[in-house]
Amino acid sequence: MAVNLMINGKATEVDADPQTPLLWVLRDHLGMTGTKFGCGIAQCGACTVHIDGVATRSCQFPLEAAEGVKITTIEGLSPDSSHPLQKLWVEFNVPQCGYCQSGMLMAAAALLEEIPNPTDEDIDQYVSNICRCGTYTRVRAAIHKAADMMKA
Amino acid sequence: MNEIKTTRRNFIISSLALGGALVIGTRAQAATVDVSPWDLPNTTGSAEFTPWLTINADGSVIVRATAVDIGNGTLTQIAAYIKEELDPVWDQIKPQYASTNRDYLEENVYSGPKVGGALAYFSGRSTGPARMDTYLQVAASARERLRAAAAAAWSVPASEITITEGMLKHASGKSGGFGEFVTAAAAIQLAEEPKPKDRSQWVFLGKKHPGKVQLPEIVNGSLIYGVDVIQPNMVYAALRQSPVMGGTLKSFDADAVKSMPGVLAVVAVKPGDNVPTDLKPPFPFGVSTAQHAVAVIAEHYWQARTALDALPVEWDDGPGAQWKTTQQMNDAAIAALDKPGEKVEVSTGDFEGVFKAAKKTVEGTYLTPYCEQAPMEPLNGTAMVTPERVDFWHPSQHSQMAYMVAADETGVKPENVFFHQTFVGGGFGRRVFSDDARMVVAVAKHFPGRPVHVIWSREEATRQGRYRPLMAGRLWAALGDDGYPTALQGRVSGGPGFFVSGINDTAITSMLPNVQIESQTVPFHILTGPYRGPGYNSNAFFVETFLDECAVAAGIDPMEYRLNIFGKWADIGWAKCLNEVKAKSGWGEALPKGQGRGVAIANWGMGGKADAGTTVATVAKVEVSKEGVLKILQIDLAFDTGRIVNEDAVRTELEGGTMFGLNMAVNEGLNIKDGQIVEGNFDEYPMLRMADMPAQINVHFGGLSDNPRFNEIGEPPAGVIGPAVGNAIFAATGKRIRQMPFRTQDMSWS
Amino acid sequence: MKILRIIGIIIVVGIVLFVGLAFLLNQRPSSPFDGVAAVTAPQYPVEEASYVARLADCVACHSLPGEAPFAGGLPMGSPLGVMYATNITPDKATGIGNYTLADFDNAVRRGVAKDGHRLYPSMPYPSYSKMTDEDIKKLYDYFMFAVEPVAKPNQETGIPFPLNMRWPLAFWNVVFAPTKVYENKPEQSAEWNRGAYLVQGAGHCGSCHTERGLAIQEVALDESSDAYLSGALLDGWHASNLRGNQATGLGRWSEDDIVQLLKTGRNKHATVFGTMLEAFNNSTQFMTDEDLKSIAVYLKSLPPRGADPQWTYDDATKVAFAGNDMTAPGSSLYLTQCSNCHGRDGLGRGALQPPLAGNPTVIGQNAESIINILLNGAGRMVVDGVPDSYRMTPFRVLLRDDQIAEIATFIRSSWGNDAPAVTAAEVAKLREDTDPTSDHVIVLNMR
Ligand code: FES
Ligand code: FES
């Protein structure tokens, strides 16, 4: 079944079973592998994308629900890695293996859209992603710094 | 490349560009690492100075890595070595993975001590001195050749030429980039290879702490991990292995799923279907043996996965099914401690005599469960097998092992096996033995001619692990009149593959005059493998919890107790680390009821010797509610690796290793039901998240001894945090935690 | 359960003492098939025969997961003790291979085995008694000729003496079990009558959805009582109200909604889960569209029971989330644990992630199902042999009792939902009752 999607501002058509999780549509049908597969059950957050601006775990988001919404993936977070979070991730040497980090960035970016000046508690709530390498303290620090930068 | 079979001496220069005129780095020129670092021949106009180093016509420098970067920064580290000695522009250093195929063809250029390989294998010990010395030497040799070539071109003495930021310069105003002199330099013969700089002259190592070279690709999602590999004409496979390890595949009904969308084939994998070779792998091939499995191959991954779920399969569980419950296995492991161990690991002095005469003895029994490494990138790999050739893209933690496994599984001549190392979404030991590599190739060889991308579901990966072994340990100490141990006896037991080395390696077994450590194997069927700090991760918990119990029995503050014991150890790093965390953690300051501090100290890699391995001392401050809910308030740690070269990289690893160890201690433990692993995903096998962490993990550098070694740092912190937290829970509640994971233990108090 | 058990004992013993009609006891009931010649070959096309077995969903109780169908062995809890479903394959030694059509009929419609012993009413013969002679003949056909015989001895019940004596059940039958085939109501349409026949008879919907009385009998067996299909507790689940109540029943559902749920396992209001998941996987999805439509027509004819509050969507919760207002207890847990699939708007995500807003199960007075599914997750829907792609996560390990209670309370009081709060104690109890590692886990209860 052909489904029309709006991904990173571009209209895209995919032919896949409507029950296919958006994650696999992105990765496998569209070759957009920045969005990662970690658990498939909405637990780890590696697959986080923005759906109409809200951080959403794409592994539990069926294709059939993706028509008519605006999807943003890590590839579309900024055209040239210029999002303050992306810059700070590099500056703070946040990633270790890096596998969870697309999802971390997408969750953090959505958080800053919703709450420009998040508290530690806000970060705990909105960035509940799993990082097996244990980059949490740096993720937190980079989000706080980004909030400061974006205010200025 | 097939016929080349030359012996290369260490720093012989080859100006031949191997393999002709392929271009590298066409994608992302601005990036430091090529995003698809497969085996690539050298580009024309470049010169290979050794198999480790090639300088291109554009001045960029390719340096080849054998230690896979699993997030620990090995690529950045080798770039730093090159920067120190050769000083190219930082962004122009292009780390690449060394070709395993070439290593084979050219008699272990990368892994043979004879020809100057850094280490005898492609995994682990990423910052070990052997690797460091190799890269520094390689870069120094290249530097001197470039200077010599420029000197000849400019007719000035080489000694007057400086190299900075990729430019050769002379006081006369003459200057030029590396590219200008590459060809000439490649032909230079030096009378003697230069010596790398003395540490006192370093300007980069230890001074600068660059972030990982692959950061730019990580933050925009373009870094290619194994699971991201896309090859033309590729198909996907979903995999199911015998739910009870060691079970066999009875039957499956392929017809039931053949007509499902996209389904191309259903294939079965059997152990023993390999075609043995006479290759000598870094580990015996036995550790990579395939389990019985069935896989569905389809055009798209979700199609394969859906069809696999629908596939009727029957298994014969085999003898593993006798282990009905976790409890039954725990009981068996603990019961094994009642008998003298089959194997005596250490025996010194007259431990029996001292125990007999002792007025006071302490005994403790401990248990650690099976744990899964659970790297965030699920196991996977892509292989294209034909009768003549294998191409294999895989996030290995040991590319050489994976390469040989691919040859062994297919029977294709090793020179025609091409292994393409990808980036790796976490390893923690899971991807070392290469059983995952074998499974990928074993599936793909049943669908020859097209690249087959095999992806484990998280559930499959969790239930088909090579786990940290279930281990039980019992320790006895005789305490002297001053309350300090005079003799130690230890027994450990576990399934096949368990590691006792942590106990043998701990300073206390080397320091005490009367020690015996015994071990016993219990016939469990669950497969095991390395897991961040193999052996050590259980043994540090046993020993350091036990030492705390001894301190309590002696009525001495646990920190003082350790300082008094380890203050006498020949390795001053131990006392330094303890004093550092004692000073920085607020040790001794009063805490409200329900809060407590605990300390633990251990060393990974010392082999029972002083001034070896890496020591870490950790103090944890915790709070336990009356209902028994645990919260970590603060973590302070100090460490001694001897010396360090990249402060931030060390800090990162210490933070990460601490969190890994904390998760292991608090959360992790697999259960067994009727021989099968119960837990499948993160809903059943919980992971710490941001909300569970103290805001800060304080890494202190005052424990460093400046002993002349640069030891590894990823594994050591993982062993001490657990006992530190367990000891803190005791301080807070009076309840002694002797079993992992802590979340299953009752910590409530009133 | 204890009180129930004591009352059960009193009643059973009481009946024994006071009625004492001994002549009833060993009397074999009469069947219209008495004296019919032995059936040696199938009388109906196998599709027709198996269809009746699908309608009656025999497989759900008479099979163990992963083992041969109909060979029995599934444990079922009851107030009296554990009992095991029997082997109903045509194996001569251990199954029903020696049953004549009349023997079979007596077992299915009257609860009496070939050897004369009485079946416990966990076998829904009070419902099956309404099945037509023809459907019984088809069912017999199916079991004799389409099912593979499996040699597997039956397991003794775990019911202690004297309660394990079966003969008092004869009296139970006299009091509670009708023995009449369903009779069409001339004032209703043929469709309605077919629906009533399926729901009350083979479909035995009341076994789960109608509450049971003190002697564990269903308190109503047809629409003459408004207790019929008004929802009931079993197996640690609450089988929902199928009557016309607006908020908690099928009041807001169209006939098509009902058909869609039974056919595909989901509709815009809910998805099947818990024990209904098994009914869907094994039975309802195989029913014809006409039969499903009939069922819908019949169910839609059942008026609401008791007070009938309305439900309307209230976007206050959504607005609160948008404004980062996390003051409502449980909202933060909902955000991290639930919103990824069910949405901050509580409306689910199409496909197989159901809405929580307005979902009858969520709003129902009894929270048992909600607690259970939060603790233990949901099984997978299997359509055409293919398990679905999405599953509800079990939170048994990840969340504490108080956290699950908080989430349950939050979803029961958000987006216009208005149901009582859930306490940690309720969660703790169900956590223990459904602990998969314990040996007293609820398996199946009397259905
Ligand atoms: S892959 Fe989607 S949350 Fe883990
Ligand atoms: S950086 Fe490796 S999982 Fe987060």
Record keyword descriptors for this entry.
heterotrimer, B: alpha+beta, Aldehyde Oxidoreductase, domain 4, 3 domains, seven-stranded mixed β-sheet, five-stranded mixed β-sheet, 19 helices, globular, disordered N terminus, C: 447 residues, Cytochrome Bc1 Complex, Chain D, domain 2, two-stranded antiparallel ribbon, 18 helices, binds FE2/S2 (inorganic) cluster
3D architecture notes:
The complex is a heterotrimer of chains A (152), B (750) and C (447). Chain A has 152 residues and is an alpha+beta fold. Chain A has 2 domains: 2-76, Ubiquitin-like (UB roll) (Roll), CATH 3.10.20.30; 84-151, [2Fe-2S]-binding domain (DNA polymerase, domain 1), CATH 1.10.150.120. Chain A has helices spanning 22-29, 84-91, 101-114, 120-126, 136-151; strands spanning 2-7, 10-15, 48-51, 54-57, 70-72. Chain A has a 5-stranded mixed beta sheet with strand order 2-1-5-3-4, sandwiched between helices. In chain B, helix 10 (399-410) packs parallel to helix 11 (435-444) and helix 15 runs parallel beside helix 19 (716-733). Chain B is globular. Chain B starts with 46 loop residues before the first strand and ends in a 17-residue tail after the last helix. Residues 1-38 of chain B have low confidence and may be disordered. Chain C folds into 3 domains: 6-176, no CATH class; 190-300, Cytochrome Bc1 Complex, Chain D, domain 2; 316-433, Cytochrome c-like domain (Cytochrome Bc1 Complex, Chain D, domain 2, Orthogonal Bundle). Chain C has a two-stranded antiparallel sheet. In chain C, strands 3-4 form a two-stranded antiparallel ribbon. Chain C is globular. The chains are: A alpha+beta (152), B alpha+beta (750), C mainly alpha (447). Bound molecules: FE2/S2 (inorganic) cluster (FES) (2 copies). Residues 37-40, 42-47, 57, 59 of chain A line the site of one FE2/S2 (inorganic) cluster (FES).
Helices and strands, with pairings:
The complex is a heterotrimer of chains A (152), B (750) and C (447).
Chain A: E1 2-7, E2 10-15, H1 22-29, E3 48-51, E4 54-57, E5 70-72, H2 84-91, H3 101-114, H4 120-126, H5 136-151
Parallel strand pairs in A: 1-5
Antiparallel strand pairs in A: 1-2, 3-4, 3-5
Helix pairs in contact in A: 2-5
Chain B: E1 47-50, E2 53-55, E3 61-65, H1 74-86, E4 93-97, H2 100-105, H3 129-154, E5 162-164, E6 167-169, E7 175-177, H4 178-187, H5 215-219, E8 235-241, E9 248-252, H6 255-258, E10 263-269, E11 293-298, H7 301-310, E12 313-316, H8 326-335, E13 343-348, H9 351-357, E14 360-368, E15 380-385, E16 390-394, H10 399-410, E17 417-421, H11 435-444, E18 452-455, H12 458-463, E19 471-479, E20 485-494, H13 501-505, H14 507-511, E21 514-521, H15 536-554, H16 558-566, H17 572-584, E22 595-604, E23 614-624, E24 630-640, H18 647-666, E25 672-673, E26 676-677, E27 697-700, H19 716-733
Parallel strand pairs in B: 3-4, 8-18, 16-17, 20-21, 24-27
Antiparallel strand pairs in B: 1-2, 2-3, 5-6, 6-7, 8-11, 9-12, 10-11, 13-21, 14-19, 15-16, 15-18, 19-20, 22-23, 23-24, 25-26
Helix pairs in contact in B: 1-3, 3-4, 10-11, 15-19, 16-17, 18-19
Chain C: H1 2-19, H2 46-56, H3 58-62, E1 75-76, E2 83-84, H4 101-110, H5 125-128, H6 133-146, H7 168-176, H8 190-200, H9 206-209, E3 232-234, E4 237-239, H10 255-264, H11 274-282, H12 289-300, H13 316-322, H14 331-342, H15 360-363, H16 368-376, E5 382-383, E6 386-387, H17 401-412, H18 424-433
Helix pairs in contact in C: 1-7, 2-6, 8-12, 10-12, 16-18, 17-18
The complex binds FE2/S2 (inorganic) cluster (2 copies).
